[in-house]
Automatic annotation (TrEMBL):
Signal peptide (UniProt feature, chain positions): 1-18
Gene3D superfamilies, alphabetized: 2.40.128.20
Keyword Signal recorded: yes
Family of the protein in this entry: Belongs to the calycin superfamily. Lipocalin family.
Designated name of the protein: Exported protein
Origin species: Halobacteriovorax marinus (strain ATCC BAA-682 / DSM 15412 / SJ)
Domain Lipocalin/cytosolic fatty-acid binding: 29-174
Acetylation listed as a keyword: no
CDD domains membership: lipocalin_Blc-like
Lineage: Bacteria, Pseudomonadati, Bdellovibrionota, Bacteriovoracia, Bacteriovoracales
Record-linked PANTHER family: APOLIPOPROTEIN D
Keywords (A to Z) from UniProt: Signal
C-alpha cells in the first residue's frame, strides 16, 4: 500500500510539473512599438470569447503608466453584433516588459487577484506578430497587425507554440 501511495504521488508530481514547465518570454518589449491595434489570428476558446469572430485588441498607454485594453469582437459572423470589453493592464516585469497582468473585472481599482497573466512569448522584430500565453498554458493567442497572415507564418507560430508545450490542437482560427 505504501509503495502504491508513493507511486501515485510521484506520477501526480511529474504530470503536474510537465504541465507547468518553465515558460520563457521574449527578452524585451518596446511598449511604444507594441501599443496599437492587433488582430487575433487564433486562440484557445474561452468562455469570455464564446462565439466571437473578427477579434481585435487595442492597447494604449495611460498617463499613470498602465495600459488601457479595449478588446472587441463580432458575435457569430464578421458582420454580427459588436461586443467590446475594457481592461487595465500593467507591467509586472520592468526588465523585459514582457509580463503583464490584465484585469477586466472591477477595473477601476487594481486588484491583482482579479487579473490574468499576459505574457509575450514570441514577438516579431518589427512587431508584426506575437504569441501571447500564460504559464499555466490555459490561454494562448496568436496576434498580428493584419487580419490575415500567410500559411507559412501560421505554421511557424504553431511550431513555436508546440515548442513551448502548448497543445495546438485546441487552437481555433479567428474569422475576420
Amino acid at each position: 500500500m505504501k509503495t502504491l501511495l508513493i507511486t501515485l504521488l510521484l506520477v501526480s508530481c511529474s504530470t503536474s510539473s510537465a504541465r507547468h514547465l518553465p515558460l520563457d518570454t521574449v527578452n524585451y518589449v518596446d511598449l511604444s512599438k507594441y501599443l496599437g491595434k492587433w488582430y487575433e489570428i487564433a486562440r484557445y476558446e474561452q468562455k469570455f470569447q464564446k462565439d466571437c469572430t473578427a477579434v481585435t485588441a487595442n492597447y494604449s498607454l495611460k498617463e499613470n503608466g498602465e495600459i488601457e485594453v479595449i478588446n472587441s469582437c463580432r458575435k457569430f459572423t464578421p458582420t454580427g453584433e459588436l461586443k467590446t470589453a475594457k481592461a487595465r493592464a500593467w507591467i509586472t516585469d520592468d526588465e523585459t516588459n514582457a509580463k503583464l497582468k490584465v484585469q477586466f473585472f472591477l477595473r477601476s481599482i487594481r486588484i491583482p487577484l482579479f487579473a490574468g497573466d499576459y505574457w509575450i512569448l514570441e514577438l516579431d522584430d518589427d512587431y508584426q506578430y506575437a504569441i501571447i500565453g500564460d504559464p499555466s498554458r490555459k490561454y494562448l493567442w496568436f496576434l498580428s497587425r493584419t487580419e490575415k497572415i500567410d500559411s507559412d507564418l501560421y505554421e511557424y507560430l504553431i511550431k513555436r507554440a508546440e515548442e513551448m508545450s502548448f497543445d495546438t490542437s485546441k487552437l481555433i482560427k479567428t474569422i475576420h
